[in-house]
Amino acid sequence: MTRLGKKTAAKETREGSVEVSRRDFVLLCLGGYLLAIAYGATFLIPLMVGGRGGDEAFAGAIISTAAVSTLLCVTFSGHLADLLGLGKSVALAALFLTSSTLGFFLSSNLGFDLLLYGFLLGVGWGIFYALMPIVVAFVIEPARRIHFMALMSGCMMAGIGTGPLVGRLVSFLLLPIESAFLVAGVCSVTGGVLCFCADRRFRKGRNVIPQVKRISARAFRKVACSNAVFPIVMVGLGGCIFGSLSSFQTTYAQTFGFDYALFFVGFMLAAIGSRLLLAGYVVSYNPFVSSFFLTSLIVLSLLMFIVLTDDVFLYVLSAVVLGGGYGLTYSVINGLAANEAPEGLMPQSLLLFGLSYCTGVFGFPIVAGGLIVRLGVIAMLYSLLVLALLNVSIAVFRLWQQRAR
User: What is the pTM for the complete model shown?
Assistant: First the structure.
């Protein structure tokens, strides 16, 4: 295939992917960026809860409530996409995200309603996060899939990093932290409209995106017995690390006298820069070697957060190392989850990939919050270090597996 051009080519590959216009793909990326701001705003929940007299354990419970709805929605997102189509499904996800963020904005206490808004967040993010990679996978040929997934995930990461920075801005303007959730709600609506329009443009003239297909017990078993299970497990462990470290970064920063905005700026710039500028070079090498090196960077960053707690420059450097390692690792294993899926089961593999990630990113914060309340923030970091070492172990096993063939 040729490069993405300004005109749409209807030429299909053997897996059904097509070339799409640069403008259409940019539209999709912008929609993904705006929708991701809603998820990024959840990193402000500990600040909101703390301002109302709550603690990290309750904040973790709110975030982890989303894990329940995420499990349900990612599992049935294939059913939903087959019923409504990808564009309408993403638009529906945007409505749930908007409902969640507006709920946080309008709430004023520490009641049960906050758990409900967390549940709605999981519904919206679970559907969106599961289906977006499938759109990219179907419109981009396999040889370039990792690179373009890196572009999309880079835009999503930019949105996730923007959420907390909006919170820092409203605090600087002496507005209540809840105002950031109002901004996130407006972004969710706009992002949903853009993704819907992009999907309509992809379908214009001919139906280039086939049905997503639901996850059946048979499909689950086949994916679980294939090599695609390794990136699926790795992204879940990575989600535990990213979700917990980001959700409680405000607590870490307050404990050691840092400005949490510096973490998100450093992390976001490194993650986006690595995905947009370096992903093309990384994917040209052996992906198993790359995943070993990059997961090792995540271990290094956690050690830096644990040991280097008295220098703001090293604090930012730790965030940069984490952003580079996590950002590129995610891109590599996302492509592997698609390319190593059993024949005909790529959509299901990517759905399980999204399910694993969302389970980790939303589910582990309740454990992390409990550790902070009982043992302190450093104890929480040690638990994340153990998970990071497990990921390195899987990467080592994949290298051994490859060389033993």
Answer: 0.80
